[in-house]
Amino acid sequence: MSVALIILAAGKGTRMKSDLPKVLHSIAGAPLLIHAMKSGASLEPDRTVIVAGHGAQAVEAAAKDWSDDAEVVLQTEQLGTGHAVAQAAAALDGFEGDAIVLYGDTPFIQPETLEAMLAARTEHDVVVLGFNAADPGKYGRLIMNGGALEKIVEFKDASGEERAVTLCNSGVICAKSDVLSELVSAVSDDNAAGEYYLTDIIGIARSKGLSATVVECAEAETMGINSRAELADGEVAFQARARRAAMDNGVTLQAPDTVYFSHDTYIGSDTIIEPNVVFAVGVTVENNATIRAFSHLEGCHVSRGGVIGPYARLRPGAELAEDVKVGNFVEIKNAVIDTGAKVNHLSYIGDAHVGARTNIGAGTITCNYDGVFKHHTTIGEDVFIGSNTMLVAPVKLGRESMTATGTIVTHDVPDGDLAVGRVRQENKTGFARRMFEKLKN
Ligand code: UD1
Ligand code: MG
After folding, report:
1. Above 90 in pLDDT, residue 290?
2. Minimal CB count within 10 Å: which of 193, 196, 277, 373?
């Protein structure tokens, strides 16, 4: 059965107190909207329709940046969740298959939960995702009759007896796309809030003789983000889950609470992560690597056996082959470091290729920027770069070449040559002692 996602993302998010639409605030390096799209993407949907309103252009750009297939429909006035779904339903006219409604501000719905809903859909016309709330607050209440869902009552419209119900509406709803379309078109705004409630479709479906049921999930999955404090709580929840998942996959975290992951971090098994490491977006680390304390990695790849840090910074485009060592206070950007090469201390390697087994001495810098353009440095295999070498790009160093300590390399070095580019040392006999005597008296 084909599936369409409808993601509601038109709300302003007043409580964020932000110029940015709420769904574009990030957890673990990805906008909330992308988290919602990712959980839905596990169903391999045929269509993904995002209902945008506030900041629609920015929302559309973010959605398309993540997936070319995302379609955005505009809801110019936020007249309620039922009205929002009606905008998407128009775009899905003629779609044969199920539609699942998700909220763009609810990032933690698990793929298995959505699969359970689709499975339940084969038996029932409408499936609602519910949860037992520790504090039901203002959630819509699910009114059951045995296993059947009779209706959803919004808090504002609920009686005392209905408010005592703890089974609550997460907002996630699934029905056949054309059925959903027909049901939302029958919703009115005759209620305490004067809004078109999506939740009214249950009562409408039941009155038409259609069946409705509830799939339950853990309350944690339904966490919605409405304020900066909730955004921080969401980050905490994400990190806790990511740390746990890494350990379950065979990664050692010496101090889990001090390691930060992004939504797309991948770490292979038997890799050891020391305390205080940050994985910004776009990082993959293969098996048996060690990421030592206080390292920051972003947009990079560390192959099997790599040892990074302590205090290393890998920036976007750092591509490290197997058994590469990157030591303390080293920054690597847009550079390929081949197998077994070492950059152990205080160096900057940017826009470069470092050949296999090459050793980069302490304090080496690729001078890659002339103030206007970036230039490339190519270093061959088995090269020995002496400490404090300045490599003024563009420049090439051949295989098995060498640079003397302190050399400023301004032109290419052929294979097997030594480059020396520094002032020759001269010793002035007794000069230091005479100088000290003068200074001290
Ligand atoms: C909704 C449900 C409630 C449920 C709760 C779970 C309805 C009527 N109520 O209430 O039963 O317990 O979610 O969190 O559905 N949106 C639009 N366009 C609109 C209105 C809303 O895109 O016109 C989007 C919002 O940006 C948000 C989502 O839909 O992402 C939910 O809207 P919200 O106003 O938060 O609904 P609740 O009142 O929380
Ligand atoms: Mg809400």
Report:
1. yes
2. 373
**100 CA to middle of ligand 1, Å?**
15
pTM for the model: 0.94
C-alpha dist (Å) from residue 347 to 33, 293, 391: 39, 18, 11
Cα 79 to Cα 83, 195, 356, 372, distances in angstroms: 6, 5, 62, 51
Average pLDDT over residues 137-145: 97
Q: Which ligand is nearest to the CA of 73?
A: 1
Name the closest-CA residue to atom 21, ligand 1. Answer: 81
Domain boundary among 186, 202, 222: 222
Same domain, 216 and 254: no
Cα-Cα-Cα-Cα dihedral of 354, 357, 358, 360, to 10°?
Answer: 100
Cα angle value 350/273/308 (rounded, 5°): 25
Triad 320, 322, 325: Cα angle to 5°? 65
CB of residue 168 inside a 6 A radius of ligand 1: yes
206 and 304 within one domain: no
Tell me, what CATH number does 42's domain have? 3.90.550.10
pLDDT tens-digit map of 28-58: 999 999 999 999 999 999 999 999 999 999 9
The verdict on the CB of residue 87 being under 6 Å from ligand 1 is: no
* CB 201 near ligand 1, within 6 Å: no
Taking the centre of ligand 1 as the mean of its atom positions, its distance from the CA of residue 41, in whole angstroms, is: 21
pLDDT-based confidence at residue 351 (cuts at 50, 70, 90)? very high
For the chain, the domain total comes to 2
Active site residue 345: yes
For residue 75, pLDDT over 90 is answered with yes
What is the phi-psi region of residue 146: left when phi exceeds 0, alpha when psi lies from -120 to 50, beta otherwise? left
Task: Tell me what pLDDT residue 184 has.
Answer: 98
Q: What's 319's domain CATH number?
A: 2.160.10.10
- 35, 74, 103: residue to mutate for ligand 1 pocket, most atoms within 8 A of CB: 103
Q: Which atom of ligand 1 is nearest to the CA of 138?
A: 12
Together in a domain, 133 and 261:
no
Mean pLDDT for the chain?
A: 97
